[in-house]
Write a structure and sequence with these properties.
Layout (H helix, E strand, L loop, with lengths): L11 E5 L8 H18 L11 E2 L4 H18 L3 E11 L5 E4 L13 E8 L6 E8 L2 E9 L4 E6 L3 E4 L8 E10 L1
Antiparallel strand pairs: 1-8, 2-3, 3-10, 4-9, 5-8, 5-10, 6-7, 6-9
Length: about 180
């Protein structure tokens, strides 16, 4: 009797990295730190949230992480994720990253469909990524996901999100990926 047409869907997926994958966490952290130091040399003051994302070198361990994600996402959802960007993201003690999203209004076709945060390392005190979303008559809704070591957080790139303050003495190391879906 009823036929449903889904016009638009917004999702947040979480998944752990397999413990059997032989990723060298220290090499990934060093790669992120190197990218962070190069970014700081270019800019005295990081002005906005998108300035907190910085380029990192291609590395076999990062490739394994991406391959694991894309293979398992394809297996589970029958959708192919094509990587468009890879970034590093470090939050030092006391730092938070303000609300933003990953869509470029001047390049919609080149913008990503899905974004991913992969936490390489974080301290004992939980930090969060907080999403803002709306649906129907409900506005300004929020969802929080804790940043957990070796966990993916996958979400629609248009979702506005922020990173809560890092209260740990050690930095939080994240990889950030953008994907288009085919």
């Amino acid at each position: 009797m009823f036929h449903k047409n889904t016009l638009f869907e917004q999702n947040i997926f979480t998944a752990p990295l397999s413990k059997t994958l032989d990723v060298n966490e220290e090499q990934v952290k060093e790669n992120i730190l190197e990218g962070y130091q190069k970014q700081k040399l270019k800019k005295d003051l990081l002005s906005g949230p998108k300035d907190q994302y910085f380029n990192i070198k291609d590395q076999v361990h990062t490739k394994w992480i991406v391959d694991y994600l894309t293979d398992n996402f394809k297996l589970k959802y029958n959708k192919s994720l094509i990587i468009t960007n890879t970034f590093g993201l470090i939050q030092i003690k006391g730092q938070e990253i303000s609300q933003h999203q990953h869509i470029d209004d001047y390049d919609i076709h080149g913008s990503p469909d899905m974004s991913v945060i992969f936490t390489v390392d974080t301290g004992e005190i939980p930090s969060f990524i907080e999403f803002e979303f709306s649906g129907g008559r409900k506005r300004n809704l929020f969802w929080r996901e804790p940043l957990k070591k070796n966990q993916f957080i996958i979400f629609n790139s248009e979702l506005r999100h922020r990173f809560s303050k890092n209260y740990n003495s050690d930095p939080t190391y994240n990889l950030a990926f953008n994907f288009q879906i085919i």
